[in-house]
Amino acid sequence: TDPTDPLHQELLALAQEAARRAGALLRDGRPADLAVAATKSSPIDVVTEMDIAAEKLITDLISEHRPDDGFLGEEGASTEGTSGIRWVIDPLDGTVNYLYGLPTWSVSIAAEQDGDTVVGVVAAPMRGETFHAVRGGGARATGAWEGERELACRPAPPLAEALVSTGFNYVSEVRSHQAEVARKLIPLLRDIRRSGSAAVDLCDVASGRLDGYFERGLNAWDLAAGDLIAREAGALTGGRPGERPGRDLAIAGTPGVFEPLQRLLEDFGAWHD
Ligand code: 2AM
Ligand code: CA
Ligand code: CA
Ligand code: CA
After folding, report:
1. Centre of ligand 1 from the C-alpha of residue 92, in Å
2. Would you state the pLDDT for residue 170?
3. At 163, phi and psi to the nearest 5?
4. CB-based contacts of 61: which residues, under 8 Å, 6+ apart?
5. 114, 181, 207, 225 — which has fewest CB within 10 A?
6. Pocket-forming residues, ligand 1, beta carbon under 6 Å
7. How many CB atoms neighbour CB 163 within 10 A?
8. Which pLDDT tens digit goes with each residue over 184-194?
9. Model confidence pLDDT, tens digit, residues 6-22
10. Is the separation of the CB atoms in 124 and 203 below 8 Å?
11. Residue of 48, 105, 169 to mutate, ligand 1, most atoms within 8 A of C-beta
């Protein structure tokens, strides 16, 4: 694949602009009393309004430039399109963090061409960072902290020194099982993190800030952009052995951590109760 393909460059520029604007909307539009509301009334409704507004901003902007593209978005965007391009969008990944005022949340936008992800953008406005990748062209990030840079995942440490992030589902029976898997893993790893944004975790693997990541129960919009960014940075990604990342299980890791982590998750039956 040719990373300088003008279509892919056009899709990248559009995804970056949409992510920038949606990130600004979420950052500037967040009600100051949201975290207080979390302990009272119905804060989820307020967050849901922001989710929906951000998704609409993204799909409106893209449709204006590319009226024939399809969409799949967490907040309901679902159209086929006729151009062969479909956008896979999570307008706000890390909703619970956003609700509480924690900085780890993101806007995730991917473009698929005939079913394969060709562009991924993840903007994390409160970290001042945006990550992007074009298929075959590597992954890059821009940000105040580490500047503009090419991303490369870390050289593999022994599993016992690997820092691995995960997430927990919201279905209580699944959570207990996930806690059991984490209990078995903790003594075998350096430590475990739980950031609350799957898209940010995948970008942190790409950046060499994490050695691995796994989660169960995710949807296409959580994974699409971050998975391409991780792979273009040299990470391996997958699901159950032999499968692509999906609802049952999504795993990303630096080569050398990915396979032993996948094997352990298989041994611990991480994708079933
Ligand atoms: P969200 O913030 O967009 O809802 C954190 O572990 C990851 O799980 C995030 O990507 C989060 O996405 C996702 N998530 C949150 N609630 C979920 C649910 N009910 N089902 C599946 N995934 C969920
Ligand atoms: Ca999500
Ligand atoms: Ca979301
Ligand atoms: Ca959600």
Report:
1. 10
2. 79
3. -95, 120
4. 14, 17, 18, 21
5. 114
6. 74, 90, 92-95, 167, 170, 196-198, 215, 217-218, 222
7. 18
8. 999 999 999 99
9. 999 999 999 999 999 99
10. yes
11. 169
- In the chain, what are the domains? 6-150 (3.30.540.10), 159-267 (3.40.190.80)
- List the one residue out of 3, 27, 246 whose CA is nearest residue 130: 27
Q: Is the pLDDT of residue 145 over 90?
A: no
> DSSP for 62-113?
HHHH-TT-EEEETTS-EE--SSSEEEEEEEEE-HHHHHHT-S--EEEEEEEE
75 CB-near residues (< 8 Å, 6+ apart): 51, 52, 55, 91
- Going by pLDDT thresholds of 50, 70 and 90, the confidence category of residue 222 is very high
Token pair, residue 217, equals 């129960």
pLDDT in tens, 102-123: 999 999 999 999 999 999 999 9
Question: What are 20-40's pLDDT values in tens digits?
Answer: 999 999 999 998 877 766 555
Place of tokens 């949409």: 18
Ligand nearest to the CA of 201: 1
Residue 138 tokens, joined: 């590597």
CA distance 230 to 245: 12
Specify the residue with its C-alpha closest to ligand 1, atom 22: 218
Both structure tokens of 129: 């960072």
Give the global pTM.
Answer: 0.96
Bridge partners for 111 per DSSP: 87, 119
